[in-house]
Specification:
The protein is an all-alpha fold. The chain has helices spanning 10-28, 40-44, 56-63, 73-80, 90-120, 132-146, 151-155, 160-181, 187-206, 215-224, 228-232, 236-264, 275-294, 319-336, 342-354, 375-388, 394-419, 422-432, 437-449, 453-466, 471-484, 489-501, 506-510, 512-520, 529-541, 543-546, 549-565, 569-582, 587-598, 602-610, 619-624, 627-639.
Length: 642
């Protein structure tokens, strides 16, 4: 494969770009028929509670569903536009995601072209062939659009947050480049472009996902590498403006990361790793990302990577020390190459800068492929620009690129076909990740839906042989045994024994609801109401579940439902108090008031609403919703009851 820049004029480049977008659409199209997945359900469930938006209060209640500030409101608004399709029609959601991916691809094309032009100015002693910059842009865009590691970020609906964040980051970089490179414009107009790019677009991207605050970091990477000559020529006012927009944001990110690491050190978290182990593991995670990108192959991509081995020390596993050395070497090489090999420095620093938040001290899960969506942009831009400027070994490099791109397209096409079917997904992920607990539970859930309870039980049992101390698997097994009417008393004894000391597992406490419903409906003779309550109490006695706000609040809420079924008002009120104390929800005091009114205790109901501590609600909720006013209206309704 030999690429000739002269054949890529401006008009032809856009035709090639259209062909590339069509190719990407064709590869992804089968996946659009696939189901909602994984984090789609908890993040989009609020759509089911909204029939219409009658007031700003309704909108505020919807946007305040996320727990953390600022809550990604722009992304949440985009989902609201499709609320009529939830939860029965994933296709419109996924189609919107694909359109955003294609739009980002067009912006990557423009950004690469402008960077290629800027990089050539003042560095070339001879004229460049026509179409060089367009060819560089096409090479970068093709590599970024078609890499299979991006597929989970496109076809998982909730990752629209990542797509929108990327969109505003790319728009911000284009606006910033216009302010930096257009030396013919007045300083005021150049300042406006810089302010739009680093100011407005940073805010917009952050309102889609918190990683958007890294936009100034990407700008700094370009300034220190490919844009160094242009930055040196900036008028003094513009130099100061870019400093004021870049450095405070970077220092704020560093402060937050240090604070997060300090707060997490030695604390109990709903993770099976400490912050120190996370810092040791992430260099291996980054190496895995790079390997999955460089060597595309079917079967290694997906949403479930909970089986990634945690690093407990520099030699455990031995690859920990090696990957740390490689990471430090890459960073030192990038810093040393900023002047002499700016493209290499740009690729490394952009990628590592893009992983700064999700691969450091913030106690997120260890591994998610969509975290590479924006960081890979800088790598692919450097590859595209570098390939068009090569002098030697061009045929070999072009052949390697063509082979890699063909392998990426084939892998993306095969992966997209798997995403089209929930049953096929469950089977493929379980086979590809036999040590992933989530993959095995997902397969078991699909087998259960299909009525193959015996196969589901065998799947869970096989996983339990690998992970006998996992509470999520144990609770799933009890559920299946209930459904099959094979549950014995000693099975429950074993579960209770495990729950006393088990590590935190989200599946474990979430599935307690399903067990409660089986017991309440008398669908499991061996599991009666009292036995379920005993198991719930045992789970709460485990510090790993008691100290986690979400699991603590969830279990107390389930116990309140148990109390309601048994007509125990005092217990229901106490359990709701405990749920609110652990994980404050504005609806809990109103639910308590409803129970009290039903019992004829109107004065107590009014006291509950009047004394509700709204200051304990999440900051986002307090900013967007006046819960005191809602409670006051409820009090007024109670006082006017006949």
């Amino acid at each position: 494969m030999h690429l000739n820049a002269a054949s890529f004029g401006f008009a032809r480049a856009w035709l090639w770009l259209v062909a590339l977008l069509i190719t990407c659409t064709a590869l992804y199209w089968p996946a659009l028929r696939g189901p909602f997945l994984f984090d789609d359900f908890p993040n989009l469930s609020a759509l089911a509670s909204i029939d219409h938006l009658a007031s700003w209060r309704d909108l505020g209640i919807y946007l305040s569903q996320p727990r953390e500030f600022p809550g990604r409101p722009l992304a949440m608004l985009s989902f609201l536009l499709q609320r009529s399709d939830w939860p029965n029609s994933p296709f419109p959601f996924k189609l919107a995601n694909l359109c955003l991916h294609l739009g980002c691809g067009c912006l990557v094309f423009l950004l690469t072209k402008r960077l290629s032009q800027a990089f050539s100015l003042g560095r070339e002693t001879e004229s460049q062939p026509p179409g060089q910059h367009e060819l560089a842009a096409l090479l970068a865009t093709a590599a970024w659009l078609l890499t299979p590691i991006a597929i989970s970020g496109v076809v998982q609906v909730v990752q629209r947050m990542t797509l929108l964040m990327a969109l505003f980051i790319l728009l911000g970089m284009l606006a910033y480049l216009r302010g930096i490179l257009r030396e013919d414009l007045p300083i005021v107009r150049r300042a406006a472009w810089i302010l739009t790019g680093l100011g407005l677009c940073t805010v917009l991207s952050t309102l889609c996902k918190e990683n958007g605050i890294l936009l100034p970091t990407y700008a700094l990477v370009l300034d220190a590498t490919v844009l160094r000559p242009q930055i040196n020529r900036l008028p003094r006012p513009l130099k100061w403006l870019r400093r004021l927009l870049i450095w405070p944001a970077i220092l704020f990110v560093l402060y937050c990361l240090i604070h997060a690491g300090y707060a997490a050190w030695g604390q109990a978290y709903s993770r099976d790793f400490t912050v120190g182990e996370r810092l040791l593991t992430e260099p291996r995670v980054l190496a895995s990302y790079v390997g999955s990108t460089l060597f595309p192959r079917f079967g290694i991509y997906g949403l479930y990577h909970d089986n990634f081995v945690i690093s407990h020390g520099f030699g455990s596993p031995i690859s920990t020390a090696l990957c740390i050395v490689l990471l430090v070497t890459a960073l030192v090489l990038a810093l040393a190459s900023m002047k002499r090999r700016p493209l290499l420095a740009m690729a490394i620093l952009w990628y590592l800068g893009g992983q700064l938040i999700e691969s450091s001290t913030v106690m997120l899960e260890l591994y998610f492929e969509h975290r590479n969506y924006v960081p890979l942009i800088g790598v692919m831009m450097a590859v595209g620009i570098g390939m068009t400027r090569m002098r030697g070994h061009r045929r070999f490099v072009h052949l390697a690129y063509g082979t890699w791109l063909l392998a990426s397209c084939l892998t993306t096409a095969l992966s997209a076909r798997v995403y089209a079917s929930e049953n096929l997904l469950a089977t493929a992920w379980a086979q590809a990740q036999p040590d992933s607990i989530r993959a095995q539970i997902y397969l078991a859930s699909q087998l259960t839906k299909s009525g193959h309870l015996d196969q589901a039980l065998r799947t869970i049992a096989a996983a339990q042989e690998r992970y006998p101390q996992n509470a999520g698997l144990a609770v799933n097994r009890i559920y299946l045994q209930c459904k099959m009417e094979t549950l014995r008393a000693n099975d429950l004894d074993e579960l209770d024994h495990l729950l006393r000391t088990a590590s935190f597992d989200r599946n474990a406490f979430q599935n307690m609801e399903a067990l409660r419903e089986l017991a309440a409906n008398k669908q499991c003779p061996a599991l009666d109401d009292m036995r379920w309550k005993d198991s719930a109490d045992i789970m709460l006695s485990n510090a790993r579940y008691r100290d986690d706000a979400v699991s603590n609040g969830f279990i107390h809420y389930q116990k309140h439902l148990w109390a309601v079924q048994h007509g125990d008002l005092n217990m229901a009120m106490a359990e709701l108090d405990a749920a609110y104390q652990a994980d404050p929800d504005a609806n809990i005091p109103r639910l308590q008031a409803k129970y009290l009114v039903s019992a004829g205790l109107r004065a107590q109901a009014i006291d509950i609403l009047r004394d509700s501590d709204t200051h304990r609600l999440a900051l986002l909720r307090r900013l967007l919703v006046d819960d005191r006013a809602i409670n006051a209206q409820a009090i007024d309704d109670i006082e006017h009851m006949k």
